[in-house]
């Protein structure tokens, strides 16, 4: 994912796919033109990369030139008039192929046809690398089309968003869901995860999804997914990842307007982490960080024994049980730590100190995402 000005874009069409599409266009056009020497006219600025790659592949002699779209203020100062400028060559009797980076509404194309009205060319043909059929509102024939794309804004390979992005060798598509902050929160038992999740939820307007709570809610309310999960639990079997993911999906969809999510208790395995990535991807979003509260074992043991004195929780009373729970936690999270470290998304945060101090540390990590 990349950010240009205020918007986020995701990879959409690779450099290889663009290359293949151009090779096909070159083949089609050169076959159709035979031995005629065409004049290729690129429309600046967007088409500079396409024209360059196109003519490098073109197997026969050809001429190349550019025209540029310039904006003028109309008579009524509110109207913005676009005019093509730079057509100085005599094109009488020539076969002209317009090379466009993208055809969207077709407004630029109308201007192309307008400036060629009085040129006595042999033929005027239109070739566009990208074409948005849903956006196209004109009737001009498009002779050659590289790749049809949906009516969504793209950048890269010559195309810009407010002047940025032209230099990228591949195409990125705008993300429908703008930036969300999605966290996977980890911490050993006694690290203060619940306390901190409550603060983060309020400060960043996130929805806290604890997988355990989601399970209990679905089972209690006898939802179809809850009953399915229960059938596994009752047999003493693990609930399959897909069932859990389907439940999380339902939670995410229920909270579509959220600024993001805090996932708590999930993922626990590599396969689950991948499934969660896929789920977020299907929502045009992503996991931004795994944040792990780091607390020394001895401090945890002390904290939990103290909690056990008042909470009455049996698993908080016995030191060897506590130590084992901590060990299980490290075994489980080690795999995920690697998974997220590989993507530069792992953040360890010192979980020792006052609640406010730890919240501050978490905030400073999240504010960089
Ligand atoms: P049209 O005149 O509406 O067909 O659009 C053509 C021009 O609009 C292109 O030459 C681009 O400058 C711009 N444009 C249209 N769609 C996009 C896009 O998805 N990304 C970047 N520029 C675009
Ligand atoms: Mg253009």
- What ranges have pLDDT less than 50 throughout 5 or more consecutive residues? none
What portion of residues is helical?
40-55%
In sequence order, what are the helices and strands, one letter per element?
EEHEHEEEHEEEEEHEHHHEHEHHEH
Globally, the shape reads elongated
Q: What average pLDDT do the residues reach?
A: 92
Oligomerization status of the protein chains: single chain
> Helix count?
11
Q: Biggest sheet, strands in spatial order? A: 5-4-3-6-7-8
Q: Let me know the number of strands.
A: 15
Strand pairing plus helix content: what structural class? alpha/beta
- Rg: 29 Å
End-to-end separation: 12 Å
- Main sheet: strands, sense, barrel: 6 strands, mixed
Task: List the main descriptive attributes of the protein structure presented here.
369 residues, alpha/beta, 15 strands, 41% helix, elongated, binds magnesium ion
Structure, explained:
The chain contains 11 helices and 15 strands. It has 369 residues and is an alpha/beta fold. The strands form 3 sheets. It has a 6-stranded mixed beta sheet, with helices on both faces. A hairpin with a 6-residue loop joins strand 4 (63-73) and strand 5 (80-85). It is elongated, with a radius of gyration of 29 Å. The model has no long low-confidence stretch (mean pLDDT 92). The structure holds inosinic acid and magnesium ion. Magnesium ion (MG) binds at residues 43, 46-47, 100-102, 108. Residues 46, 101-109, 153-155, 159 line the site of inosinic acid.
């Amino acid at each position: 994912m990349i950010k240009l000005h205020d918007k986020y874009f995701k990879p959409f069409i690779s450099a290889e796919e663009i290359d293949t599409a151009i090779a096909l266009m070159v083949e089609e056009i050169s076959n159709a033109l035979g031995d005629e020497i065409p004049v290729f006219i690129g429309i600046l600025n967007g088409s500079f990369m396409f024209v360059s790659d196109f003519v490098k592949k073109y197997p026969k002699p050809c001429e190349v030139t550019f025209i540029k779209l310039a904006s003028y203020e109309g008579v009524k100062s509110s109207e913005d008039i676009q005019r093509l400028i730079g057509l100085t060559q005599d094109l009488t009797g020539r076969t002209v192929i317009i090379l466009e980076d993208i055809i969207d509404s077709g407004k630029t194309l109308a201007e192309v046809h307008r400036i060629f009205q009085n040129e006595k060319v042999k033929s005027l043909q239109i070739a566009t690398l990208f074409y948005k059929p849903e956006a196209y509102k004109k009737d001009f024939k498009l002779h050659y089309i590289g790749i049809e794309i949906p009516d969504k804004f793209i950048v890269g390979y010559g195309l810009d968003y407010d002047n940025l992005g032209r230099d990228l060798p591949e195409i990125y598509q705008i993300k429908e869901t703008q930036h969300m902050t999605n966290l996977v929160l980890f911490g050993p038992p006694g690290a203060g995860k619940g306390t901190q999740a409550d603060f983060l939820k309020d400060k960043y307007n996130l929805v806290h999804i604890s997988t355990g709570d989601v399970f209990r809610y679905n089972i209690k309310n006898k939802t179809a997914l809850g009953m399915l999960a229960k059938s596994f639990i009752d047999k003493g079997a693990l609930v399959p990842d897909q069932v859990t993911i389907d439940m999380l999906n339902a939670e995410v969809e229920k909270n579509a307007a959220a600024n993001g999510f805090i996932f708590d208790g999930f993922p626990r395995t590599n396969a689950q982490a991948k499934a969660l990535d896929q789920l977020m991807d299907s929502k045009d979003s992503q996991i931004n960080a795994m944040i792990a509260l780091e607390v020394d074992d001895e401090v945890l043991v002390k904290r939990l024994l103290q909690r056990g004195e008042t909470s009455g929780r049996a698993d908080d009373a016995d030191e060897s049980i506590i130590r084992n729970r901590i060990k299980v936690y490290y075994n489980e999270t080690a795999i995920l730590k690697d998974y997220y470290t590989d993507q530069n998304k792992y953040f360890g945060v010192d979980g020792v100190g006052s609640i406010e101090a730890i919240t501050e540390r978490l905030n400073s990590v999240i504010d960089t995402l």
